[in-house]
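Quick review question:
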């Protein structure tokens, strides 16, 4: 449950791609608490170094940025037009509470709504397609027009974060927006804690990289030197897929590329050896930080694993079992 509680803290800090300063400050403090050797890259990624027995270096990356939105323009009636950050399931934004984060550091609350938001008023309230053009943000401020909004200090270019609605149940589920990929960041910190507490000897050097622009495609485009990179990111759950929320998912291929043959085999063999609940799957619409690292020319081999997450980029959920299977696989692979 410690991992889920750490995830809850991370989820409570708004961090749409491009607005990750506060969450990175939190993670920097967590590194200091543990006296970890770490630094922030010029791009803003966090790199944590753990020494091992050989010169070979295994990189493990997870992303702490999330989907979100940005104010595009202010409507004449004082509502806000927005553009999405990343690829959310936009119909799930309809009715969601959100926070407008101004560049001067103020926060205002609001709600994402369709442009025909009342079933008593609009014939097409149910059928209007939920798109950026057909939706707006209703601010919780007494604003009647564009000037009123500007006077508050809200302007195009302000970030918008979506209320994650995090709940941890007694049955071991964590349901929240943005488990992709904050649950994996929490998993990596649990891995670090276990390595420190049990004084585990690592077979290679390890660099843990927490990226901040994954949802927009270039999180791990620039990374420190590693020999291989394993992205720890949400596992897909759904049609044609074997993975459930109780498993660690190992991805053989996503819509970008197959993953490295040998690393993937080693991960599968390790999962078998440790008798973990795992699934080897192909993700139909997916690219990871390893895809970003490879496509930007990094000379590495890569793999992708993570806990099964249901309803991704919508109202996500996973289970402690999937989280623990992922932790066990990572530690088994590193030691
Ligand atoms: Zn992700």
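Suggested answer, residue by residue:
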């Amino acid at each position: 449950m410690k991992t889920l509680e750490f995830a809850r803290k991370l989820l409570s800090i708004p961090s749409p791609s491009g607005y990750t300063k506060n969450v990175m400050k939190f993670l920097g403090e967590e590194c200091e608490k543990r006296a970890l050797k770490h630094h922030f890259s010029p791009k803003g990624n966090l790199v944590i170094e753990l020494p091992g027995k050989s010169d070979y270096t295994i990189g493990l990356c997870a992303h702490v940025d999330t989907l979100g939105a940005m104010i595009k323009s202010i409507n004449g009636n004082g509502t806000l037009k927005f553009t999405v950050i990343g690829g959310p399931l936009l119909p799930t934004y309809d009715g969601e509470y959100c926070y407008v984060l101004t560049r001067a550091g103020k926060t205002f609350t609001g709600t994402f709504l369709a442009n025909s938001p009342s079933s008593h008023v609009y014939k097409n309230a149910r059928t209007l397609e939920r798109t950026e053009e057909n939706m707006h943000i209703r601010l919780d401020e007494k604003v009647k027009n564009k000037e009123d909004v500007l006077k508050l200090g809200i302007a195009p270019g302000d970030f918008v974060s979506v209320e994650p609605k995090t709940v941890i149940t007694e049955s071991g589920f964590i349901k929240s927006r943005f488990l992709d990929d904050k649950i994996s960041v929490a998993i990596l910190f649990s891995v670090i804690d276990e390595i420190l507490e049990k004084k585990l000897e690592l077979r290679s050097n390890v660099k843990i990289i927490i990226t901040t622009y994954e949802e927009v495609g270039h999180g791990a485009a620039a990374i420190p030197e590693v020999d291989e990179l394993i992205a720890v990111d949400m596992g897909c759950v759904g049609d044609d897929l074997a993975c459930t929320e109780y498993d660690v998912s190992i991805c053989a291929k996503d819509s970008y590329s197959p993953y490295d043959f040998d690393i993937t085999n080693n991960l599968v063999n390790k999962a078998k050896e440790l008798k973990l609940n795992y699934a080897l799957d192909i993700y139909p619409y997916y690219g990871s930080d390893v895809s970003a690292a490879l496509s930007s020319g990094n000379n590495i081999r890569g793999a992708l694993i993570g806990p099964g997450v249901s309803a991704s980029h919508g109202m996500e959920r996973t289970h402690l079992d999937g989280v623990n299977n992922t932790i066990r696989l990572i530690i088994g692979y590193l030691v």
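Why it works: The helical segments are 2-11, 21-33, 146-151, 179-197, 261-273, 289-295, 320-334. The longest helix spans residues 179-197.
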